[in-house]
Every structure is written in C-alpha cells, then in structure tokens.
Specification:
- One of its GO terms (cellular component) is bacterial nucleoid.
- The structure is a single chain.
- The chain is of the alpha+beta class and about 240 residues long.
- The chain is built from 9 helices and 7 strands, in the order βββαββααααββαααα.
- Helix 2 runs antiparallel to helix 9, helix 5 runs parallel beside helix 8 and helix 7 packs across helix 8.
- The radius of gyration is 19 Å and the shape is elongated.
Length: about 240
Amino acid sequence: MLTDTSAVVLKAVRYSDTNCIVHTYTERFGSTSYLVSRSSGRKSGGLRALFLPLSVVQITTDHRPNKDIQRIREASILHTPMRPSVDPIANAIALFVAELLDRILRSSDCDPQLFAFVTDEIRRMEDVDARSMASFHLYFLGALSWRLGIMPDVEGYRRGDVLCCEEGRFRPAVGRHETERSEVSYLLHKMLTMPRQEGLVIDRNGRNKLLALLLQYFDHHFPGVSQLKSPRILQELFT
C-alpha cells in the first residue's frame, strides 16, 4: 500500500555504481533508509533533493516494516536549505547537524514532535543573523537534549559547579582538573537557562570548549557521538 510521508534527508551513501542508500528521518516511520538511483537526481528535483543533507521532502513509498531498505515511488521538495550553499559557517553547521542526527536517530521510531522540532530548526537556520549562526549548533544541541529528555538538570547550580555527564546535573568541582572546567560549565548553564533570542555572548575559544562539553555529554547517552567527523571542521572555523 502506497503511503505519503515527509522526510528529512540526513545522509546519502554510495551503494553501487547506479544506486545510493539515503538515510532519512521520516514523520510517519521514524528512521528509514531508501534505495535511490543515482541517475534519478538528474531527472527529478524531488529525487535530486534526496542527495542534499537537511532537505525536507515529501515522498510516496510502499513501506514494508520487515525490510531494512525501502523504495521511493515519488518525491517532491518541501524545503531545501539555501544558506549553507553561500555561507561557509552555515554549511559546516548543516553538515554537523545532519551527521549528528544520522548517528543518534538511526534506530528511532516515529516521533511527530521530534520531527517537527528538527524541521523547525532547519528552517530557523535560514533566518538567523551572522552572530546567531556562529552559535546555532550549540543552541541546537541544547534544544535537542530537552526534546530527547536528556537535558542536564539546571536546578541548584552555583557558580564554580561543573557538569557531571554521568549524573546529568551540575555539582561542585572536585580537584584542579575539574575546576578548570567550571567556566565552560557556566557557559552551558547560562545557555540552557537564558532565552534563545537574547543570544549568548561567547568568543571562538568558548564555542569550541562548549561544543566539546556538549558532545561529551551526548556521547554518554549516544555512544559514538565522539567519533563524528564534522565537529573538527567547526573547531577549525572557530580557531
């Protein structure tokens, strides 16, 4: 039976000389992989968008739950991010968001609220100013942690506390090595508790340290996040 669903494109992997496996997060089926002909991108704008990370497409599929790889009958474009094609920072952030979501949502079931959150964030990327774009990935991680139910407990924080990834809360620093992490923990707490529209004033070094802490926290919940390749590009941009 043919079914329509919206989908966010996360990754396209070459499968053969003629086909690719496209990883998506769909509104109706959650994480789903599709076999797509590489030549299809030259024939249809909708199918061409399947090769562009963070494109949002409408697809028609004969979805079969017992199959690991599905097939697409038709596809049309709902939204293709334009800013990454003209803004190097937006491009690096888009690649990071796509790689992160592909890692942590790979086996996720249908979650319409999570899907709506992801598509809203993709569209938000088009509208933020240059200063906000530089910290977009940090706010995205913070908002995603809340949406996934893993946001650190911010209650009871005192200046000088550090984030404990294992416990998911802030606690007093123990030893000099933890004291050195108190400043980046302060930045994280501030980011998680202040209105997003106010914007976090942070320099390049602070962004890199905050990204490293957030990735360490996510890796505790989703092993393998620390092995992502795209954060290195972001760190180089902000060096």
